[in-house]
Design a protein that fits this description.
4 copies of one chain form a homotetramer. Helices cover 29% and strands 34% of the residues of chain A. The first copy, chain A, has 4 helices and 7 strands. In chain A, the strands form 2 sheets. A 5-stranded antiparallel β-sheet of chain A has the order 1-4-5-6-3. Strand 3 (57-64) of chain A pairs antiparallel with strand 3 of chain B.
């Protein structure tokens, strides 16, 4: 699972005047980890889009536990929690890469759509992508 | 309640290559509406920080119902759902400003801290800010 | 010219831990003002894209004179400096909306392309858009 | 010099509806490369801030040559062009990490200030930081 961790160095432009990372960036880090997970599984999200699959966010949430700061590096660990062929659910842990301190924990739900934003049941429309998603689910 | 709506014109830099507003921006819009609500109540968030109060986000979530697009304007309607003197909870509705179509609904939880990030119970530390928050809760 | 000023309230998410607006946001503000200028002239940028015209940035620059801060509002004043039918040049002044203090001054160059990113000489391809751009140039 | 290249994978949230990276992100990438250059030289920018040195951007500019896209990785190569003890000038080349294609070229100017935003002549106030900056200038 740790192999799926996405390493992200906190950037100055991600901080706000509270002196910590602005909370909206955690959702960008989730995306970074989610797309890297797909890529490591063998199918980059840009390749999914090229196949005519779009995977918008239906809902997303995050609990903030401690503040990530500039000068630190975080690891974002994504886990595929559910996959139905039409829907995907992923959870995330953001930890300090050095200390392991938990920064945040979150979860996102997604739909698989075609390029006209209609539901695209992967087992029928893209069996090879379906197989890849099932493998990701089992491994998590 | 509609008086509290924050009007936001979708900007090009808020879109992504899916052709819609990137989901992370909704959390920025929530902040825009939340801080405008405080300001209209008589105390801008920059004035709260000047008083030594910081109000970080403890948790935040959003359900996405339909896509906001470039060329559209949204109204973000914040409602104070709970206030305890130490904690604050706000919900948000994002609707298209013209059609009223629901784009997203969300919720955030916050703590009141002092500038050293220690809990700051407003009834004791800042009774005038506490009174303002109570009025906001009742009005919602 | 002042009618073209775009009013922008500084947002918390635009600040960084230096306690001022992060410089990258000024380029977003330029875009806000540039697209609002087009819209006020009668053609929103989303309508230009719908006509098959894209107007990417070829170069952009900004001199920072003083720091915009959270709690302040800025006015961004765009001026069309040059228009050739194929190229556009716009300058920007960012001033504090209350005091008039100059925050920044910038300039951007753009090309008119078709949706396949090939040059689109507006006098030939879209004479009505060409006429609008010429009027904007004269007014500035 | 290539050792100083900062490798950045294009993120989905950095794209806009033109299907390419939004131009404002290049200035964030410059910052990423500039701060990594300092860090590799032995002094992270967060350590400079801890010493009471802030280094705001006085001016910045970028020429865009070709579009970086999602699914690509870029290398940002910073070069210290000038250093006077009070001022710093850095240039940047953004190239595709695989093909070497030039995406953009830019330049930024900075001042060294103390935490009250007054000029801080490094040779007097922080000779060890001054020495490090001089080494960076020579190496470039």
């Amino acid at each position: 699972m740790l192999e799926c961790a996405c390493i992200h160095k906190v950037q100055y432009y991600e901080t706000d005047q509270m002196g910590v990372v602005h909370h909206s960036n955690y959702f960008r880090w989730f995306e970074e980890a989610r797309t890297e997970l797909l890529e490591k599984a063998g199918l980059g999200y840009h390749e999914m889009e090229a196949l005519g699959i779009v995977v918008p966010v239906l809902s997303i949430a995050c609990d903030f536990k401690s503040s990530a700061k500039y000068g630190q590096t975080v690891a974002i660990i994504p886990t595929v929690e559910a996959y139905t062929g039409l829907r995907l659910e992923v959870s995330y842990q953001v930890v300090d890469a050095k200390t392991g301190d938990l920064r945040a924990a979150g979860r996102s739900k997604h739909a698989f759509l075609d390029s006209a934003f209609r539901p695209s049941p992967l087992p029928k429309t893209h069996p090879e992508v379906d197989a890849l998603m099932r493998r990701l689910l089992v491994k998590s």
